[in-house]
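INFO  loader      accepted 1 record
INFO  loader      residues=156
INFO  predictor   begin
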Amino acid sequence: MIKDAKDRNKVVSLATFKPTIVHDFIIQKDTNDWDTQKKEALSQMNLFEKKNQNFQIVRKLPYKFSYKFEDDSGKISKLMIEDWETGALYWKMLIKYKNEKIASEKVKEKYFDDFAKTKDLLFFLGTTKLNQFRAPNPFIIIGTFHPKKEEKNLFE
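INFO  predictor   done
INFO  writer      dumping tokens
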């Protein structure tokens, strides 16, 4: 998949991936605000060629969230998750508990203790223009799919 993402003739930029084992959900403290360069780049974005006077830059999450997982060949990887639902859950928990550490732990409870341990977890992966051809692994997790695990009936 990574090889195909770096092949300029194929350029795979979206994929679904089912980890064999999810080892951890990692929480890393990050800055509370966008750096000046990023803020300027975001404010200059021109979606659909229309100027929007009400455009506001989304609040930056003060944490980075990542999954540490293993694939079917036994390779262990760590990928950051940048799903907007992860951020929305963090902000909801921060409002509820009024504590960053508790809010981030509640995100881990949902994404690791629930999704990874009790559901059939799949990742939606995507690449970024910046890292498509230069990063060792250009993929990030852009979403999750977590249906209930199917219980197999041994007598069927």
